Amino acid sequence: MTVLIERFGGLIGGLLGTLPSTIVPAAAGIVAGSPSEEGFALAMCAVPAGMLVNAGFLWLWRALPPRLPAGSVGARLGAMVALTLGAWAAGAAVLVGLMGAAADAGIEPMATGLGSLALLVLLGVAASLRPLPAPRGTRRVGPVTLVARGGLAAVAIGVSVALSATGGALAAGMAAVFPAIFLTTMVALWLSQGEAVPTGAVGPMMLGSASVAAYALLVVVTFPALGVLGGSVVAWVLAALGVTAPATLWLRRRMVG
Fold this sequence. Notes:
The chain is mostly helical and 257 residues long. The protein contains 11 helices and no strands.
């Protein structure tokens, strides 16, 4: 994602960078570790709610910087990381509790998943209606940053698989979408390109993240029908065509207009 935003700018790069990535191995690991098909479905249906929390996490990267006191780049960035991760943890805990209560009340997990996906799309569109400046980066992001991104994503996947094996389906779904890539993207771009590039990418990233939520809901159907490999491919293509492609066309038209 960092490289895409650097190359194409925050609008299109932010959108393309949110195509399903870490959710693909996470879903495969969770289905392998889940004690039942119902547990896997519950975990995947929690992903859209997790992406809602991630949308809030991203929005804070737009809303908070103007409100931070003046200071060094390091001090402002450190405050942003602490505030946004704290907000994500609180939001994730609340949503896990709410989804657990909904399941106990007999509400189908797929219904909450679809509702969360619809809300995520609406929030992404709203955040992209007034695009902020989202220039291309002028300096390359270093390999250390890219390695850190991969390492954090791998940890999130490992935690989600471990939780699924212990029966913590909702927590597994939430852990699978821990914003490791979003966080490292924002930090890397803030340091290498300045505040304008990551701030301008927030709206498209919020909108594009709906493809991850769509992928998670699709594999609930495609994995049992086609197996993990075939189901992953079909779900990825459908998520890309159903979410990312129309969102990209819409944003391009807004840019031209």
